[in-house]
Design goal:
mainly alpha; elongated; 0% strand
Length: 133
């Protein structure tokens, strides 16, 4: 792939990854609205680190992580694309969002389908490696 193609793809990757966190929020809302209904491999939020959290509290904590990551990655994508957000904010936004996303994944490991979890981890690690080297 040439450099120009990669530079064009990066904002799209960050944007899609950010919006994917919105999908996790939507999945939690779906599960809450239809308790006992079919959810595929998605489960209600529960944290192995904080097992005493009620379902509502665990959902609120998970949604906070996903909302922060969503906003951060979307803003980083806009920064990289040169739209609205200053270019100098890309690095802190992307790094912070990747850390928040990884922390949320770690706290709620097992809540999401394996493919979604592995794909999110891969993008987060790629962001960290790319920006910390």
């Amino acid at each position: 792939m040439d450099t120009q193609t990669i530079q064009a793809a990066l904002p799209a990757v960050l944007l899609l990854h950010g919006l994917g966190h919105g999908g996790a929020i939507a999945a939690l809302a779906w599960i809450a609205a239809r308790p006992g209904g079919p959810t595929g491999d998605w489960h209600a939020a529960r944290s192995w680190l904080m097992p005493a959290l009620s379902a509502d509290a665990a959902t609120a904590v998970a949604c906070t992580f996903w909302a922060l990551a969503l906003v951060g990655f979307v803003a980083a994508a806009l920064s990289l694309a040169g739209v609205v957000v200053p270019a100098g904010t890309l690095r802190p936004l992307a790094l912070g969002s990747a850390v928040v996303s990884l922390a949320g994944i770690g706290l709620f490991l097992g809540t999401w389908p394996a493919f979604n979890t592995l794909a999110a981890i891969a993008v987060n690690v790629a962001v960290l490696v790319a920006l910390l080297r």
